[in-house]
Design a protein that fits this description.
This protein has about 350 residues and is α/β, with parallel strands linked by helices. It contains twelve helices and eight strands. It has a five-stranded mixed sheet with strand order 1-6-5-2-3, with helices on both faces.
Amino acid sequence: AELSDATGREGAREERAAAREGTLDMLMSRSSAVRARLMNDAKVSIDYIEACGDCFYMAIEAALSEHDGWHPHYAVAQQRLLVAQQMTEETFQLYTLLHTQRAEGFHFMKGVDSLEALRRRVKLRGQKVGAHKCVWADGFAMETIANCFRVLLLVIDERSAQKFTRISPAAKGGEREGGEGVLDAEQNTVLLHASTREHMNLIRYDGKKLPQLGDLPVQLRQLWGIRGVRGGAAAPLDGGVASRGASSAGDGRGGGGRSSRRALMQGGRRAARGGGGGAISRKRTAAAAAAAAAALCAGGTREERARRRYLLRELAHEMHAHERDSVELGGAAGGSAAAELT
């Protein structure tokens, strides 16, 4: 009876903690809270997306459909298919490694024994199978969508200390656009808010779901480390918002932003995929990070290295959750990987 009472009290404490976390998450997702992140710009508003495991894809679908109307190519199922098709044997091996190391967010790899099995799971829609049975969008997925639809992703990430994450579409030849913090004024842009509980909502600017980068004022662009736009005003070289920690995680250059689920989206993100996986020890996370860092430094094309970088950020931000002030990936490989991140 005493054991039953103790178990009941522990369960009640966990429920209260979850309720408090949910309340804080809800408050941070309110329009006023998001607007506060963006300098209280009155033109900022938020479209709430259903929390079903497809939130990122649904936000992209809504944004892309604004100009020319809905098209089957914008559908959640088609986006998931695009992401699945871009996955390689290397992606499968790295996800398997992270699952083996019990890294948080990779429990969806349980029972996945091949690349084809992974692709089938990624294609499952949350609206059909449930949020906990689908794979949430991570940095790899977000980069793939940015490239396929030629959109710039600007994310407010409540899970990251830097708060602002940028994922730029790849230019021809595999380089990331905006490497020097300068992008085209006509670049289609999607603004997203990633909550602490890994949910994404769509941000409108001046009523637009898919504004052009030039529509955003200089001060807001600086938050994501965008120094200027071609045909637009340049940001100051000294001082200003950009010099106070703006990030450019999408192209792997500049500040300390993150792009996958926790670093978006771990990406950041908890921006950022397979649902919660429980706490993970720092020692185990460090081991997984070192292994992933070694893979990152193993060579390959620039595009392959860019994909690994996003996966590695998953681990980097996992370590931030245990030690917010610094991230040490460990070993020579980890040091090289850290240099690649910044």
